[in-house]
Design brief:
Elements: E1 15-21, E2 26-31, E3 39-44, E4 53-59, E5 66-71, E6 75-80, E7 86-91, E8 107-112, E9 118-119, E10 124-131, E11 135-142, E12 145-146, E13 155-159, E14 165-171, E15 177-183, E16 185-191, E17 196-200, E18 217-222, E19 230-235, E20 239-244, E21 253-256, E22 262-267, E23 273-278, E24 283-287, E25 293-296, E26 305-310, E27 316-321, E28 325-330, E29 336-341, E30 346-351, H1 370-389, H2 391-412, H3 427-471
Parallel strand pairs: 7-12
Antiparallel strand pairs: 1-2, 1-30, 2-3, 4-5, 5-6, 6-7, 8-10, 9-10, 10-11, 11-13, 14-15, 15-16, 16-17, 18-19, 19-20, 20-21, 22-23, 23-24, 24-25, 26-27, 27-28, 28-29
Length: about 475
């Protein structure tokens, strides 16, 4: 049985996520309610170890979102992520990428081009694929069921490395640049327009013994949506490296994280954070400006983390791995919000940003209707008018009530008396008597005397204003004929 955490989960906001696993299943997990818990609502495919999903890419379109998956047996499938319908199924042998001399030559990088590569009217999709041996291609595929060799469209092939093993790849937001790295392969970036290498990293400076570790990159990603020159990479010797291709070839920053290899790297595309997961289940966040560890996420995972994904709108991230759990975390507090056990070793997690939950009675976060808003506004206006018309009356009543409460408190005060009932003449008794007489005089003035005095003052003011008005009237001038 997997080891679980005893930390209480407060729940997460409504969201929809898709997960892939080592048996080739695709599961849809949703959260209904705010806050809510993760629940599996759909499962697509049949369990088969030979069809395990190695890589996945998602085109988050509002009308027809597409999900592309690369399986262990070399097949590439494109599905409709709303209902799981298979739109295209092909194999890497049709692309000429598989190396027949290697039995373990699997697909490492799969990217479905979203802005340029999908044409829904002509039902054509463009994929970027990369194998472990370094063979890569950029191909256009018609989405018309099972493909034949004659159905493959235009393609551009390239070779990422001559030796080594590719383990990670990433595609820039503009879809014009891609990066690759692996065991014995330094991180390098490619221009997909003409399929040429434009930058290659250089190993860090040797240590005091004159030794530098061989390149072994296990995870890599672009840091910014607008700038493809910033790169974050994780290594097998538990290092997180930050590269700036416009500045230098060596890493501008390198920090150690725990003691096990880095298996997943996810940048916060709208901020200055990068989320890192390693083989022992540790999940933490770094500030890319200073390289400082901001903190670890509450609740340790019990297996290797293989995928981390940041929600494009909400301040949450999801992680999954070999412990078969999907976890959702709050990026601000680093608290665990919700978990769900999915039974298989998970390989990828993807968010659906266009998901909106509507309960049985409609949207739970609906705005009030126009009539409700009108009634509310009118009621609010009446209250404000009443406050403006009678401010003095309310203030005078409030002052009277406060004075009466004071007299009640003074009446309740017990004066020191003797056995015969006679009050002792002390400083305390004299002060209480003075306060009582003062408050009684103020109440008499508020009940009638103060009002008449104010009225007389107003009459005198009116008479004086009439006199001044008469004095200030201009004299009539005689006009000569």
């Amino acid at each position: 049985m997997p080891r679980t955490s005893a930390i209480e989960c407060p729940g997460c906001p409504p969201l929809r996520a898709l997960t892939t696993d080592a048996l080739g299943l695709i599961k849809v997990v949703e959260v209904h309610g705010n806050p809510g818990i993760l629940k599996v609502v759909e499962r697509w495919g049949q369990p088969d170890a030979s069809s395990g999903v190695l890589a996945a890419s998602y085109a988050d379109d509002k009308i027809e979102p597409l999900l592309a998956v690369a399986r262990k047996n070399g097949s590439v499938e494109i599905l409709n992520s709303l209902n799981g319908e298979s739109l295209c199924n092909t194999h890497t042998k049709q692309f000429g990428l598989s190396d027949t001399s290697r039995q373990d030559d699997h697909i490492v990088g799969l990217h479905l081009l979203k802005t340029k590569g999908i044409n829904l009217s002509s039902r054509v999709a463009t994929l970027l694929l990369c194998m472990e041996n370094g063979n890569g291609c950029l191909k256009s595929i018609p989405m018309s069921g099972v493909l034949h060799d004659s159905d493959i469209g235009s393609q551009m092939s390239f070779n990422v490395c001559s030796a080594g093993k590719i383990l990670c790849s990433s595609l820039a937001k503009s879809e014009n640049f891609a990066l690759f790295g692996g065991k014995g392969v330094e991180v390098n970036t490619w221009d997909l327009g003409n399929c040429t290498r434009i930058w290659t990293a250089k190993s860090p400076r040797p240590n005091s013994l004159g030794l530098s570790p061989p390149p072994w990159f296990t995870a890599a990603s672009f840091l910014s949506e607008e700038d493809h020159r910033k790169i974050a990479a994780g290594t097998n010797n538990h290092q997180v490296r930050l590269y700036d291709t416009s500045a230098q070839r060596r890493p501008v920053m390198s920090v150690d994280y725990r003691e096990t290899p880095i298996k997943a790297v996810c940048p916060d595309l709208h901020g200055y954070k990068v989320y890192v997961g390693n083989a022992s289940g540790d999940l933490g966040s770094f500030d890319i400006r200073t390289g400082k560890l901001l903190g670890g996420f509450t609740g340790k995972c019990s297996g290797s983390i293989r995928s981390i994904r940041k929600h494009p709108e909400l301040s949450v991230i999801a992680s999954c791995g070999l412990d078969c759990y999907l976890r959702v975390w709050d990026t601000n507090t680093r608290q665990l919000l919700s978990t769900v056990f999915l039974k298989q070793h998970l390989t990828n997690v993807i968010f659906d940003s266009h998901f909106s939950y509507e309960g049985p009675g409609g949207n739970r976060h609906a705005q009030p209707s126009a009539t409700q808003v009108h009634d509310y506004d009118s009621a609010g206006d009446n209250e404000t008018v009443e406050d403006e018309v009678l401010p003095s009356a309310r203030s005078s009543e409030a002052s009277k009530m406060s004075k009466r409460s004071k007299t009640k408190k003074l009446d309740k005060e017990e004066l020191p008396t003797s056995d015969n009932g006679q009050v002792y003449e002390t400083k305390e008794t004299n002060e209480i008597k003075k306060r009582r007489s003062k408050i009684a005089r103020q109440e008499d003035e508020d009940d009638g005397i103060g009002d008449t005095a104010t009225q007389s003052e107003v009459e005198d003011g009116e008479k004086s204003s009439e006199k001044h008005g008469k004095r200030l009237k201009p004299k009539k001038r005689k006009v000569s004929a």
